[in-house]
What we know:
Elements: H1 3-32, E1 37-42, E2 44-50, E3 54-66, E4 69-72, E5 82-87, E6 93-94, E7 97-98, E8 103-106, E9 109-119, E10 123-130, E11 137-143, H2 146-181
Antiparallel strand pairs: 1-11, 2-10, 3-4, 3-9, 3-11, 5-6, 5-10, 7-9, 8-9
Amino acid sequence: MKTGNLKILLGAILLLAGGLAIPAGLLVPAFGAPNENVVFETPGEATLEIEAPGRFYLWHKYRTIHQGRQVVRDEHLPDGMSFRVSRLDDGSSIPFQARSNIHTEIGDAESRSIGYVDIERPGTFMIEVTGGDEQTRIMSFSRSRMMLFARAIGFSLLSLVVLGSLGVVLIVFGIGQRAGEA
């Protein structure tokens, strides 16, 4: 194979690899991270085994289907509710940071963030929700995937730029080399 054709082929392969980096970079965090999530009724508590450090959010699932029944509550929580996340092994409390500005809607299900904790080391954790109007609400506690996706998008775009640029350079040099060989 002539070197001009080889450069064009390698350039095309690099362009294709750069283009595939974006969907691959988005799918890997979606399916590769541990599925650390617990859904529970409140007031109440739940436990969750956490395998790796990270940020975990407590969500109010105010419109959802839970155990075969539809649950619809006011989006905003009543006054007097308290939230606690603690390690089961030593009972130490993890500082809870209130943050209710994230809203999700998937189909007919809607949730609003209540707050988050930063878990620094793996272990089993107790999530407790008390107070309020004693009306049953559905909560979930799960790993934040926002930073995973942000890193994945950054890596994907960087890969696209680097591999795509190398691919274009190789194709241009390959075309130039073929023209010189003719």
